[in-house]
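Action item from last meeting closed. Structure (271 res):
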């Protein structure tokens, strides 16, 4: 199995997801924190609230993680019945109920029983993406909406390049192995093709931005948050993070900042 295939398999490994990557909210929060320095700023939970303006009834957040979207929806739309769901019991511990532990590939809901489903930055974590999308469509009522989100294949390429350079330096070769990419299995470019098999009226909202840093600490936090997949990196993980920090600090010293280009987005779909 190639290194890329190993990484893809690990990104969807249920044991890694439930017991390491998302055993609690620590790694996810670290990965999210780098966006504090992004311009323009986007109110992501607010965008979901906007998208659900015409929705009433039950909303299921599949793979809700640390509950950022669940909490906002419950605050802004108390008329909705919002249910958080995740594969990891640990990451659900601090989220107000109702929440449930379940697998997105086998949802414990009847056909046509939910008015909206959120699948935010999580479909790349399921083993069978196409089958999971059919499962999401199954539980939606006619006219129901799925809101999915992910990143582009081009998102944060500067961090990919930084990692490969640092990994190569640690290994003593010109360029090291690529870092684990979470979104590549279900990227902004691949998502419409997957979603079109079960949904119609697919609308894409792209959210471009630039992160400009004058301190390497947020880069270190972001790269280190992938520790759950350290075994799949093909390089000493912590040594590579440290070397990346040194290279980032050198770039900041010379250029005044380290810039990262971002591209994520939402996809709103109807059954």
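Sequence:
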């Amino acid at each position: 199995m190639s290194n890329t295939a190993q990484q893809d398999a690990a990104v969807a490994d249920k044991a890694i997801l439930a017991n390491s990557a998302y055993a609690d909210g620590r790694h996810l929060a670290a990965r999210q924190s780098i966006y504090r320095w992004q311009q323009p700023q986007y109110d992501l939970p607010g965008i979901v609230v906007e998208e659900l303006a015409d929705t009433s009834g039950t909303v299921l957040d599949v793979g809700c993680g640390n509950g950022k979207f669940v909490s906002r929806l419950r605050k802004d739309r108390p008329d909705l019945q919002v249910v958080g769901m995740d594969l990891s019991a640990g990451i659900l511990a601090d989220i107000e109920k109702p929440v449930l532990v379940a697998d997105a590939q086998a949802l414990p809901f009847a056909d046509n029983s939910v008015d909206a489903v959120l699948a935010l930055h999580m479909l790349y974590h399921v083993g069978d993406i196409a089958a999971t999308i059919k499962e999401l469509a199954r539980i939606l009522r006619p006219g129901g909406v799925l809101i999915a989100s992910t990143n582009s294949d081009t998102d944060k390429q500067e961090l990919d390049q930084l990692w490969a350079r640092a990994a190569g330096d640690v290994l003593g070769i010109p360029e090291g192995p690529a870092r684990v990419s979470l979104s590549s299995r279900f990227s902004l470019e691949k998502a419409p093709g997957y979603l079109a098999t079960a949904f119609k009226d697919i609308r894409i909202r792209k959210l471009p931005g630039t992160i400009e840093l004058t301190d390497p600490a947020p880069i270190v936090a972001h790269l280190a948050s992938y520790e759950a997949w350290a075994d799949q990196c093909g390089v000493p993980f912590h040594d590579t993070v440290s070397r990346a920090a040194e290279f980032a600090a050198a770039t900041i010293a010379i250029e005044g900042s380290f810039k990262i280009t971002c591209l994520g987005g939402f996809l709103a779909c109807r059954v």
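Note appended to the action item: Residues 3-153+180-208+263-270 form a domain with the Rossmann fold fold (CATH 3.40.50.150).
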